[in-house]
Amino acid sequence: MEPEPSMRILLLAAAIAALGATAPAAQTPAARPAAPPAVAPAEPLGPPRAFIGYTQPDIGAAACRAVNASQTSCSIPAMTAGRYLIEASGTSTANAAGAVQKLGIIVGSTSCGTADRRPTPASPWPAGVAKTIKLQCEVEILTDRPLVVLAVYADDKATRSATGPTLVVRRLPWDGVLSTRVSSRSQD
Questions:
Q1: Is the pLDDT of residue 177 over 60?
Q2: What is the pTM of this model?
């Protein structure tokens, strides 16, 4: 049952009065807007208030371990919300012509991307030379359960470093953007 129009106006007026809103006096001059700050404030670390109960912890070296010469993993704890930059690398020494490298990052069950190196006549990879391949991935995490980040490295005709791939997870400040997608149609 809808209240009568006059009752709605009274309810609205009571709500405004309860919030402390008052009309300016007729002879009060308009206030000048404050000058903008000289330097914009830094973006805050940690999740916005919409994610109460979540944190954006540092994911340090103690959260990461080499699984084997092909994989390194880091654990992101439960109740994490935030932006992170994931950086991985893999190093091998070529032992024959045509050596190749491939590196991927997996977050949970989602591929964050891959990178590969294949020698070309303009950029050969001679035997006996070590090369490092690198890959970066930026993610926004919102998880109730622990989440595993993996760096997966493979090579061919090369000897991989015994320490396995490197994997670093760095906290980034929130910028307020939850998701973006790029779309581009054919252009004339």
A1: yes
A2: 0.71
End-to-end Cα spacing for the chain: 59
The mean per-residue pLDDT over the stretch 64-89 comes to 95
In total, the chain counts a number of residues equal to: 188
Distance of CA 57 to CAs 45, 115, 125, 187, Å? 9, 28, 40, 43
**Greater confidence, 5 or 38?**
38
- Reported in sequence order, the residue ranges of the chain that DSSP labels E, i.e. its strands, are 64-68, 71-76, 80-94, 100-107, 110-117, 130-143, 147-156, 158-160, 166-172
Q: Which residues contact 14 (CB under 8 A, 6 or more apart)?
A: none
Rounded to the nearest 10°, the torsion over CA 167, 116, 153, 148 is 50
Q: CA 113, CA 107: separation in Å to the nearest integer?
A: 10
Tell whether the torsion through CA atoms of 53, 108, 69 and 83 is positive or negative.
negative
Q: What is d(CA 60, CA 77) in angstroms, rounded to the nearest whole number?
A: 12
pLDDT band at 21 (very low <50, low <70, confident <90, very high): very low
